[in-house]
Amino acid sequence: MPCPCVQKRSADCRSRARARHTRARLARSGSALAAAFATGLLLLLAAPRAHAYIGPGAGFAVLGSFLVVLAAVALGGLVLITWPLRFLLRSRRRRRAYAKSQVDRVVILGFDGVDPEIAEAMMAAGRLPNLARLRESGAFARLATSCPAMSPVAWSSFMTGTSPGRHGIFDFLHRDPRTYLPDLSSAEIRPPRRRLKLGGLTIPLGRPTIRLLRRSKPFWAVLGEHGIFSAVLRVPITFPPERFNGLLLSGMCVPDLRGTQGSFTFFTTRQEESLEHIGGERLSLTNENGRLHGELPGPPLVSSDSGEASKAPFRLRPGGDDGAQLEIGGEHIDLHVGQYSDWVPVGFRLGPGMRANGICRFYLRQLAPDAELYVSPINIDPERPALPVSHPPAYSIYLSKRLGRYATLGLAEDTWALNESVLDDASFLEQCALLFDERKRMLWNALETTRSGCVVCVFDTTDRIQHMFWRYRESGHPAPVEEDASPFTEAVEQSYEQADEVVGELMSRLGDRDALFVMSDHGFKSFRRGVNLNVWLQQEGYLHLKDGASGEAEWLRDVDWERTRAYAIGLGGLYLNIRGREAQGSVAPDEAPQLRAELIEKLTGLRDEANGAVAIERALDTAAVNPGPYADSGPDLTIGYGVGYRASWGAAQGQVCGAAIEDNERRWSGDHCLDPALVPGVLFSSLRLGSDDPSITDLAPTVLELFGVAAPAYMQGRSLLAGEEKGTALSD
User: Fold this and answer.
1) Which residue, of 181, 320, 390, 529, has the greatest Cβ tally within 10 A?
2) Which of 8, 267, 220 is nearest to 108 (CA)?
3) What is each CA distance from 497 to 64, 355, 458, in whole angstroms?
4) Please, are residues 376 and 408 in contact by the beta-carbon 8 Å criterion?
5) Which of 671, 688, 703 corresponds to the end of one domain?
6) pLDDT tens for each residue of 261-272
7) What percent helix, strand, coil does the chain show, rounded to 5?
8) Same-domain status, 175 and 291
9) Does the residue 338 lie in any domain?
10) What is the C-alpha to C-alpha distance for residues 666 and 485, in angstroms, rounded to an integer?
11) Claim to verify: residue 14 and residue 44 sit in the same structural domain
12) What backbone phi and psi angles, to 5 degrees, belong to 39?
């Protein structure tokens, strides 16, 4: 997952519901279809009017829920009317599609960040019995990750069977060469071209557009072209959702309702403290006759050119030292100190007749001596989505009606709130547990409704907990720990045990002709020291600051580009300031190869003299290690950090100040943005594998072969099926 410093981007998308091969999976009988149609009609009648709005900062846009619900109602009616004909056509097509299939169903369970060293040690100690059983009956191997070893890159390689040079995702962020500013690497967002100004009111004319920047088709789209259905749950870099023959709920990079990658709000009556929160806002609660009043900020008002936020006013009525009643938007919710509320629907008026709907959780930290209230990032409401977060759009509504409201934010675990001590370790783990349970319910529903085809589900909490609790795994880590560390010393191991329990229950639900893969996108290591490459480049004479600048300004705003030859953006990329490519390039194109080679030589094996350790294992020529048609869209160099090292917090924010290498003193204490050879993932399989060195690009062609579908020519991975074991599915 990304460093919290990059959790500030969002997006909008266009997607229309399709009747074929979608509602048939959501409802398996005529009566169920009728109920779905009635539910859609009720939603339409109850839904408030909503339109598009433009989000802050990056200009991301959100489409109103009215069109989404209207599409759901129309789809429900079409499904109901055409059900008999579609049933016959589907049965015929299914027989053809599965004629060459070796299995009835493939299930892929992803646990983000599970590390092979930890998993192997825990299996040896008997603490992961279900994964051990899967290893013994099938196969287990370390899974080579992508280069660089980052979640958006790795999961893109997983789904497309290609390296970054062919899918175009090289980092969480990429830079705009016209401005040198960072942007989300997975999507391009453009506001409506035309707007109408009526006095102080700005009305967008037309829809904002969003384009998924990941290239190459995911394997489930290829399966769909051959009549094989897939259900895909929360796989990263699937936003905006693409149309295909199946169901999909988007994962990492879905924004919150405010247009960011996750911004919490912290309310308090304390007045003397002045804190600036990078990952959220700190706002005041006012006391009026014993009731506490606050305003929850939402999306920007359409009438505001400066991005002024809409507000949802609320009141807290304390009921003693351990609870209070929350009044917001006509809802009355009982809050208890130290407990999360359920998801609470919250509406925001953006302008005349314009409204956006979200959901959030409230966590009452304390009432005395000062009141403190944490509010989670405002998620897009899956029941009344302000933009499609699923394919078809009706799928998110269906899941919410069937399972209850759930998180839609791509980065739902609020790591920033823990980093900034707004949440403590215990409350963060509780939040993770709630999100984990939501994902389980989705998985069981997908298994129940997808009896043949492919099911893919990714769980994120293993990654998030390792990021935040690695500091408890090793003594002397510079990150802070609780005075009583005993409840958290095995938080990482307990998250692995939680994952193992899901694997065990899943195996009990599978049949003889089901194939199971359990995998992670990368492993994990300690993050003890941060490297600010821009400071190093300045010290070596490759980067210069403007006269009198301190380098403290974010996003390289203090850099003198006319004298700068190289700079770093993101968590693992270094760019050359090439003339004709960058807006203020200073390096002639014919000088770039020599400069690239010079930097590779200097950075490879770079030592941290204070610790006597290697901070950077390798600096790699990105285009050479990731060739392909989109290789030029990545950084010029990819940095492979050594164990214990990663890009520093200042580097991640584009600052050029402080030491080149310094201690990491934040709770975010583990990471995987290292040399890929140091952080492989894991692969468990119910099938015997024909390779001892599988790569994350190999899963896509393997799944295609199991269903008798030839891998497209663009896929670089190879099938992992052993010749004599092909077709051997899960058995007891």
Assistant:
1) 390
2) 220
3) 41, 43, 16
4) no
5) 671
6) 999 999 999 886
7) 30, 25, 45
8) no
9) yes
10) 16
11) yes
12) -60, -45
pTM for this structure? Answer: 0.87
Q: For residue 35, what is the DSSP state? A: H
CATH of residue 11's domain is: 3.40.720.10
**∠ Cα 11 14 20 (to 5°):** 135
Burial of 345 (0-12, 13-18, 19+ CB in 10 A): middle
Q: What's the rounded Cα separation, in Å, for the pair 129 and 124?
A: 9
* Residues 415 and 668: beta-carbon distance below 8 Å: yes
Q: Are residues 505 and 543 in the same domain?
A: no
Same domain membership, residue 189 and residue 132:
yes
What would the pLDDT profile of 446-481 be if each residue is shown by its tens digit? 999 999 999 999 999 999 999 999 999 999 999 999
Residue type, position 639, single letter: I
Same-domain check for residues 520 and 537:
no
The answer to whether the Cα torsion of 91, 94, 96, 102 is positive or negative is negative
Note whether 629 and 697 are same-domain residues: no
Listed in sequence order, the residues at least 6 apart from 137 whose beta carbon sits closer than 8 Å to its beta carbon are 686, 730, 731
Domain termination residue (choose one: 379, 410, 432):
379
Q: Which domain holds residue 583?
A: 527-671
Do both 547 and 627 map to the same domain? Answer: yes
CB-CB contact of 631 with 165 (8 Å): yes
Please state, in angstroms and as integers, the Cα–Cα distance from residue 567 to each residue in 106, 148, 390, 430, following that order: 44, 18, 37, 40
Residue 731 within a domain: no
Q: Which residues contact 612 (CB under 8 A, 6 or more apart)?
A: none
Confidence band, pLDDT 50/70/90 cuts, at residue 585: very high
In a domain, 83, yes or no: yes
Same domain, 452 and 437: yes
- Our count of domains for the chain comes to 3
Which tokens hold the place of 290?
A: 């014993």
Please give the structure tokens belonging to residue 494.
């307990």
Query: In angstroms, how far is CA 152 from the centroid of its own chain?
Result: 8
Integer CA distances (angstroms), 333 to 294, 675, 725, in order = 15, 48, 56
C-alpha to C-alpha distance for 529 and 238, rounded to whole angstroms: 32
